[in-house]
């Protein structure tokens, strides 16, 4: 469980679709823009209505988040929902956040721009399930994960083009993993004591030996959208 406000940019998305709702994560890039996974805010590749998405910020406790409405959703034009590539989207709020209001600190996260190394250690955070069969967490949680062996990453996904391509892959993490509900949340590169930059966006994971297992075992291979690869699109 996360202690203190180490991740003031972390946000929760509540998406209402077909009379049901589900959760995703997102990260604040500015006072009015967040970044998340495209699959969180689309239905069969088509963006959902901005009215169906609510953004929650300002607390590690899911019950204490402050809610904001969405003005527009920008899905990456090359998002491929069948192969889950280019899995990112930008969300624009109806009104900019006031970082100085409210009891808890709110802030933004910078994008990591350096090349990634083998065995890079990241921090992933979210309110997602604590296991494949577990419940959504009411408290923000963090976990450290390491980039996976390239052979395992390519075996599970032939489209994988290496750690400095469109995706970051983690594997063989001894049950340390992201899970359902963590999608869209950040994969963070530590750059100093309690200082992080945004390297990836939680996209998907599964065990090649059993595709029904989506998280929480040593056999799961997980993929994250590599944000650096998309800086030009984000800035436009």
TrEMBL record:
MF terms in GO: serine-type endopeptidase activity
Stretches of the chain forming a coiled coil according to its record:
none
The transmembrane residues are none
Record-linked Gene3D superfamilies: Trypsin-like serine proteases
Q: Which UniProt keywords apply?
A: Disulfide bond, Hydrolase, Protease, Serine protease
Q: Which InterPro entries match?
A: Peptidase_S1_PA, Peptidase_S1_PA_chymotrypsin, Peptidase_S1A, Ser/Thr_Proteases_Immune/Dev, Trypsin_dom, TRYPSIN_HIS, TRYPSIN_SER
Q: Which domain of life is it from?
A: Eukaryota
Biological process terms from the Gene Ontology for this record are: proteolysis
Peptidase S1 domain residues are 1-236
Protein name listed in UniProt: Trypsin-like cysteine/serine peptidase domain-containing protein
| Source organism (scientific name) | Dimargaris cristalligena
């Amino acid at each position: 469980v996360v202690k203190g406000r180490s991740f003031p940019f972390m946000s929760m998305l509540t998406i209402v679709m077909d009379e049901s709702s589900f959760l995703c994560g997102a990260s604040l890039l500015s006072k009015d823009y967040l970044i998340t996974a495209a699959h969180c805010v689309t239905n069969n590749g088509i963006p959902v209505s901005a009215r169906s998405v609510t953004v929650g910020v300002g607390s590690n406790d899911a019950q204490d988040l402050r809610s904001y409405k969405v003005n527009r959703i920008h899905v990456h034009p090359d998002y491929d929902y069948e192969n889950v590539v280019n899995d990112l989207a930008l969300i624009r709020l109806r009104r900019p956040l006031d970082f100085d209001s409210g009891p808890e600190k709110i802030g933004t996260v910078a994008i990591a721009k350096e090349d990634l190394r083998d065995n890079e250690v990241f921090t992933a955070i979210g309110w997602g399930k604590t296991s494949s069969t577990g419940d959504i967490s009411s408290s923000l949680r963090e976990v450290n994960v390491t980039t996976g062996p390239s052979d395992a990453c390519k075996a599970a996904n032939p489209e994988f083009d290496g750690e400095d391509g469109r995706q970051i892959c983690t594997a063989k993490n001894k049950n340390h993993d992201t899970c359902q509900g963590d999608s869209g949340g950040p994969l963070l590169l530590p750059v100093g004591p309690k200082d992080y930059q945004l390297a990836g966006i939680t996209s998907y994971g599964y065990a090649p030996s059993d595709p029904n297992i989506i998280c929480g075992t040593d056999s799961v291979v997980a993929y994250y959208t590599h944000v650096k690869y998309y800086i030009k699109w984000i800035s436009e």
